[in-house]
Amino acid sequence: MTMLMKYEIKKKKKEAMRKLLSERKEWVIKTSAMVKEQKTILKAIKGHLENQSATVPEISEAAGIPSDKVLWYLATLKKYGNIIEGEKNNGYFRYVLAEAEVEKTAE
After folding, report:
1. Tens digit of each residue's pLDDT (9 = 90 or more) over 24-80
2. With 70 as the cut, is the pLDDT of residue 102 above it?
3. What are phi and psi of 17, to 5 degrees?
4. Phi, psi of 50, deg, nearest 5
5. Given this model, what pLDDT does residue 89 score?
6. Bridge partners, residue 95, by sequence
7. Distance CA 66, CA 45 (A)
8. Which end of the chain is more exposed for a tag (fewer CB within 10 A), N or C?
9. Can you say how many angstroms the Cα of residue 6 is from the centroid of all Cα atoms in its chain?
10. CATH architecture of 3-106
11. What pTM does this model have?
């Protein structure tokens, strides 16, 4: 394969990627916004749990996030071992960051 052929192939691939990106631009923008929102919510939740344990309503109030969303994120964080369910307080579990997460946020 000659250098010219390699260049042409590379050029065609770039053009195909540009076309694909332009066709899916709206989808890419929506997805990027969703990922950014998720990171913000996770940062707020983990930030609140950094120095104290808290219940869903406490986290919701402190972070300004609806409690149903907080519960969903806490369930996910618990599933992946990022938080630990503590004792119950007025019918709600208190959540605390797992030790590995405490070390990550300290860095």
Report:
1. 999 999 999 999 999 999 999 999 999 899 999 999 999 999 999 999 999 999 999
2. no
3. -65, -40
4. -60, -45
5. 85
6. 54, 85
7. 12
8. C
9. 39
10. Orthogonal Bundle (1.10)
11. 0.73
